[in-house]
Structures are given as structure tokens and as C-alpha cells.
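Q: Give me a protein?
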Amino acid sequence: MENQEQFVQWLRSVAPYIHAFRGKTFVVAFPGELVKAGALPVLAQDLSLLHALGIRVVIVHGSRPQVEEQLALRHVEARFHDGVRITDTAALECAKEAAGELRLDIEAAFSQGLPNTPMAHAAIRIISGNFVTARPVGIIDGVDLELTGVTRKIAYEAIHPILNAGGLVLLSPLGFSPTGEIFNLTMEDVAVNAAVALRADKLIFITETPMIKDMAGADIHELSSHQVDAVLQHDCVPADAAFYLQHAMQACNGGVPRAHIVPFATDGSALLELFTHDGVGTMVSFENLESLRDATIEDVGGILKLIEPYEADGTLVKRGRELIEREIDYFSVIEHDGVIFACAALYPFPAEKMAEMACLIVNPEVQTQGDGERLLKHMENRARAAGLKKLFVLTTRTAHWFLKRGFVPATVDSLPKNRQQMYNWQRKSLVFTKNL
């Protein structure tokens, strides 16, 4: 930090994240390439900080390069089918050797405690065990993958008490069958199943892949699970990144709210992703296309029915059907079983790189389910996609709601010129803005 004021501002800026993440469960997975690159000590320091902030951390490690090293030392040829390792008895011994060494390296990294280091006074206990039940992949396209397996079950009932007691849990890419067999798994498969079984709040892949970019070369900071499906179908990202995206989408579809893909080449990438607004990686979130979507002309009746009570009591300015029809492209809605129960509109002002969010309404019967925040997030993403930098709202009744979600008070003079001319001085609406 350059000065005291900068430090204080930084600490205050991360406080909302600290409050939001306390008591949450994060599954953090990283490949063997991270360890090979010498980044394990720094990652251990960052994860110990998450632990100190009250976050429950489950770690899943990979071991591909370490297995390759063991195979080379034993002069055993690596065999693959369609990108999946065929694990025979010799390859399994190499996987066991690699996993054992990595487990010891990870335990040693979390045992650091030198004064004047981030690990001072940490005293973290990391627990590993037979938490992963697996089954064989079997025969694919006539090829027997032998001892290559997939996760069958995660012993979440045994993991939760460890997390509740303040310990970290370590999972290796090996699983065990009820008959006592050992199977070689992928780190990504174990991580996804662990996140789903533990009902984790986040799955974080700390990866060897660089920042994921779109076809135009721009960084992709956020995708919904259905957008990931479209990206994968267009085959526009490298194979390694696509593999991570596929598993991130699988986790979100399984109930994990957020999955992050973060390059470990950036120092402190996990912290930057979690505690800064834009992060340094790609976040995948679950969004049901059938429930949250852009409005169509068929939605006009549902929107009118939703907003009419608020027009009657003066919360909203009255809008006629013709106006809603003309402006329907600005609206987004949340629908369930054909019923519109939330809506909002986004009016862009491209010259000032600003947008107005208006008519944010949620049916009173479902106002405690977080749909207002879903709509706000959706509108922020729409504004960002249009290259806009600031969002503003005018309100007479819901000032506190917007203040709690990052908006700050502003004046009429801060509005775009065209919007200033349309300001209703009789209503005296309060103005709030938010940087995107």
C-alpha cells in the first residue's frame, strides 16, 4: 500500500465480501501443474487466509504431471483413449505414489508457521481419508479403461464435522470401492461431486489455463450455465479450458451457485477473484433460461398486471399498454409456469455510457426469494455487455434496498442530459448510481 488512506480504503472495500463469505463452504481444486510450478506455498497461504476469515475450505488436488513422472521413472508407457487415461496396475501404482507425495507436500505447506509470514499463528489442521467412493468407468467404444474410475459418492456426513471443527479437508484423485479396489479419478470429477454433495457455495478451479477469451479475443469474466453450453458447442476455446468449463457447468447444474476458473499464473489469483469486483478469472453461474429472460411482446399483459398495483399507490409512474409495447425490448422478466412474477427495464444512454434501471418489481408473494437481486445482476450484465459503465435508478420508496446493493446517492445533475430534462420535480425521486 502506498499510504495509510489507501490501505484503509482497500480494507473497507473487501469487508462486504468477508461478511458474505463467512461460514460458507468453498471447494478449491488445483492441478498437479500448480505444484510443479512451485506455486503451492503461496496458494496455501491464500487458502489459510480464507480459513481465518471463517470460510470452510475443502481442497482437491490433481496429479497428472506427477503421474507422468512416475510412469517415466518406471519406464511404463502412458495409454489414453479419447483423452482419458487407461489405468492398468502399473499406472495405478504410479498414481498412488504421486498422490502420496502430493498429500505430504500439501500437508507440509499448511504446516508453515514462521513469524512475519502469512502463515504465522495459522495452526491449520488438514484432514484426508477415504471420503471418496468410486466405481470403474468400464468399457468405452470397446476399450477397457481398467482401473480408471468416476466418483460414485462423497462422504459428506463425515466431512461436515471436520469443517465445523475448524479443519480443512483434502481429497485426492483416488477413490475406493466397497470391495476394496482403488480407482484413478480426475481432479475435476472429484471436485464437482464434492461441491454438489457438500452443497458448497463456490467451486474454484485454480488452473494452468490462461484467462478464457471469446472469439473476439476479449476476456470472459462471467457466463451462465446455458451460455457455457453455447460456447462449448461453438468450439471456440482451447481443449483444456473447455474441460474446466464443462465441469463448472456440471457443478452449477447440480446446485452449486457459482463456479470459478482462475489461472494460477497470476499471483494471489484466488484472492483477486473472490475479493475484487471483476476478478481475474471466469465465473459460471446457474441461470434458468425459462425463468429469467428478455421480455417479448407476449409478456406485455403479464407485466401490466404485475405493475398496476404499484402504479395505483404511486410507487411507479403510470405506463399504458402502448408504452410497454413500444419499450418491451428494454424489459427482462422472471417467469414461472407461464406467469410473470418479476420484471425490470434497462434504458441505455450510450453517449454518457450510462443506463437507467426502472420498473424493478417483484410479486409480493415471492419477495423473500432473492429474485430482485437476480434481476439486478441480470441488468448489470446487460449494461456491461453494451459497454456501459454506470447504472442509475430513480426511486421514491426503495432507497434502502438500493443502498444495500452498492448504489450511492447522487444528484439530478449527475444524470444524462436527456434524462435530466425528463425528471419529474413533483415526484422528487431520489437518484442513486452504481459503477459497473
User: Anything to note?
Assistant: The longest strand covers residues 339-349. The CA atoms of residues 24 and 55 lie 5 Å apart. The chain has a mean pLDDT of 91.
